[in-house]
Every structure is written in structure tokens, then in C-alpha cells.
Write a structure and sequence with these properties.
The chain is mainly α. It is built from three helices and no strands. Keywords: Membrane, Transmembrane, Transmembrane helix.
Length: about 70
């Protein structure tokens, strides 16, 4: 479960890199947020914490980015 959670976290982090492009910013932030929440659910069933913590960081970055852009950018 930790490996699956880590994979979701890495995919979410890669999507957050696309935030620097204006048109893809809102789409990738929302998609990264959803993917990280799914990864967090998988990570919560694991005994290890690495995947869960990675997904928490991705969620935090995505939420801050959406807050700064007003939810649209």
C-alpha cells in the first residue's frame, strides 16, 4: 500500500510542475489534489509513513496554489 501511495504522490507532484503554465494551472492543481487525496487514502492503510507524508505535502502545495489563484488558476 505504501508503494501505491508513493506512486500517487509522485504523479501528483509531477502534475504540480505543470502549474507554471497558465492554461494548465487550474486543471493540473485540481487533478493533483484529487490524485494526492486518493494516495493519502492508500497511505493511511499502510504501516509506513513515507507515501502518506508525500501525499500530504502534495495536498498542501496544491491547496496553497489554488488559494493564491482563487481556485481557478
Amino acid at each position: 500500500m505504501n508503494i501505491i501511495s508513493t506512486i500517487f504522490g509522485v504523479v501528483g507532484m509531477i502534475l504540480l510542475v505543470l502549474v507554471i503554465f497558465p492554461i494548465l494551472g487550474a486543471i493540473s492543481s485540481w487533478v493533483a489534489l484529487v490524485i494526492a487525496i486518493i494516495g493519502l487514502l492508500f497511505g493511511s492503510f499502510s504501516s509506513k509513513r513515507a507515501g502518506r507524508n508525500l501525499n500530504l505535502i502534495v495536498i498542501l502545495i496544491a491547496l496553497v496554489r489554488l488559494y493564491i489563484g482563487g481556485g481557478l488558476l
